[in-house]
Write a structure and sequence with these properties.
Elements: E1 10-14, E2 19-23, E3 27-32, E4 40-42, E5 53-58, E6 64-69, E7 76-81, E8 85-92, E9 104-124, H1 127-130, E10 134-139, E11 142-147, E12 151-157, E13 166-171, E14 175-183, E15 187-194, H2 205-223, H3 233-245, E16 247-248, E17 253-254, E18 277-278, H4 279-292, H5 295-311, E19 323-324, E20 335-337, E21 349-351, H6 362-376, H7 383-399, H8 418-438, H9 444-462, E22 463-464, E23 469-470, H10 497-509, E24 511-512, E25 515-516, E26 534-535, H11 536-548, H12 552-563, E27 575-576, E28 582-583, H13 589-608
Antiparallel strand pairs: 1-2, 2-3, 3-4, 3-5, 5-9, 6-7, 7-8, 8-9, 9-14, 9-15, 10-11, 11-12, 12-15, 13-14, 16-17, 18-19, 20-21, 22-23, 24-25, 26-27, 27-28
Helix pairs in contact: 3-13, 4-5, 4-6, 4-13, 5-6, 5-7, 6-8, 7-8, 8-9, 11-12, 11-13, 12-13
Length: 621
Amino acid sequence: MNDYPAIADHGLIGDLQTAALVATDGTLDWFCSPRFDSPSIFASLLDRHRGGYFSARPVDEAFTTKQLYLPDTAILVTRFLTEGGVGELVDFMPATGTSPSEEHRLVRMVRCVRGRISFQIEVAPRFDYGRSTHRVSVGSEGAVFDADDTRLVLSLIREEGDERLARYDVVDERDLHIALSLEEGQMRGVVLETGPDAAPHEMRPAEAQRLVDATARFWHDWLSQSTYSGRWRETLERSAITLKLLTYAPTGALVAAPTAGLPEEIGGERNWDYRYTWVRDASFSVHALIRMGFTDEAVAFSRWLRDRLVERRESGMAPLDIMYRVDGSPELREEILPDWEGYRGSSPVRIGNGAAGQLQLDIYGEALDAVYYLDQRGTHVGQTGWLAICELMEWLADNWDQPDEGIWETRGGRKNFVYGRLMCWVAFDRAIRMATAHGRPAPLARWTTERDAIYRQIMAKGWSTEREAFVQQYGETVLDAALLKMPHVGFIAPADPLWLSTLRAMDAELVSDSLVYRYDPSASPDGLLGSEGTFSLCTFLYVDALARAGRLNDARLTFGKMLTYANHLGLYSEEVSLTGEQLGNFPQAFTHLALIDAAITLNDRLNAGPGTTRPPGNDPG
């Protein structure tokens, strides 16, 4: 099982409708098309034999690699240092646009920057998670891989008359190997295209360079919208670019991660498909993106959310599902790829997500908090949206006081999770604020009654006198890092003695040298076997909570330590193992959102100086 690269040894490229992972050895081992949630074409990251791959590396086995992004872009450069020379592999995907498209381009340029170097390029697609057969045909300008309902075309980047530089071999009638020898200053490569009408066509190196330049301009122009100028700016901008790469441009939906099946424990069963839009994660994105100045993305998501609410009006169903496909479809049937070995033997490999049918009441608070945050900043709710919100609140008034599966999507049955109640309180609070601010018609008396009832219930049942802390669920003593949001959302003052006591309890039980576990599965069984690492999202929530509580030195040290767990490109997966290895789907949007929020809160508090317990601005928290 040692043939798998480390999860952290990857960079991300994408075109705002799908994405690919490129390992530090030049292997593209994850790519789905035409969307994030489409079947895979390359997926050797989950099965080295069945998944398919697209590699580009020196023929010389003795090489060292380095990887970086071109500054302020999503253009990935993998550098190969060999005894005979230095080569570079430049990977990127030109932005596709805001209309759903079957056509996507993935450009892989190889160049020799010093001495001489020979590259071996291997293209071995396995369509539909390896379940579809295909055939390959080779012509003078490239190759075509045809599966049942998918076409993949490879076009050559080369100068006229330089056929002598390359040699092509078809392997097993389905794969293509290309040998390419370059001298200093030469650049060649390939363009991979998907789409029913795609056909091979030669591309000159100068044209490929213009594509690089245009893609770089796209990212520079987008990043220029950022208004953030505080500490750790480059780190936050890399996180913002990553979030942009995880956003499906046609709808504004943010996927939780571009991957499926990467394990929370090596060899374990906690392997989930994250290529979908969670209402919770995407709602959190509104805060992070607006705080950095990226208003368009936040507004686009608000429209996506409005559409989900409106389509459920008068249906008699719950107003929202917890997750959707990027086009808004709720169909996420979970299935297992039966013969796949999984990353380093971590099986089963799941596609789809069975948690989609769970009841998670917290999503309503996160959604309303995002809508309220936008409303405060000038993006107001229209009449259709307000009617949908009113129906949502009426449903919530009838349904908040019941057990649910909770934010962590446990599969051990419904329980009375405090975080779910907390976010129901947020939903009522934000709806009341908006109705009052704009004079909107609403049953304010009932909403206020329900809001206050939730508050009293949390204080009576969510507080443990034994632990001197707010706990995960009623009647238990287990702590829950999700409750680090309590001061952020304004439920409790960050200097309240009850909260400071809770924070001290978390210090002792959930924090391991600055890293934070979300809860203790052994003390609160979640219906799954095995253990997990510390949760990177929770570590950044901890930084935010420390800063709000005035513990600035602790917050700054924790944040600094957490930055050392990023990979070489500044990317984070979901979890960090005991040995510091990144685990879980990669890169994870939730982690990068929390990083941005924590950094801005900490920066604002450091600027304000010691002795204050609230950052500047009109955030309810």
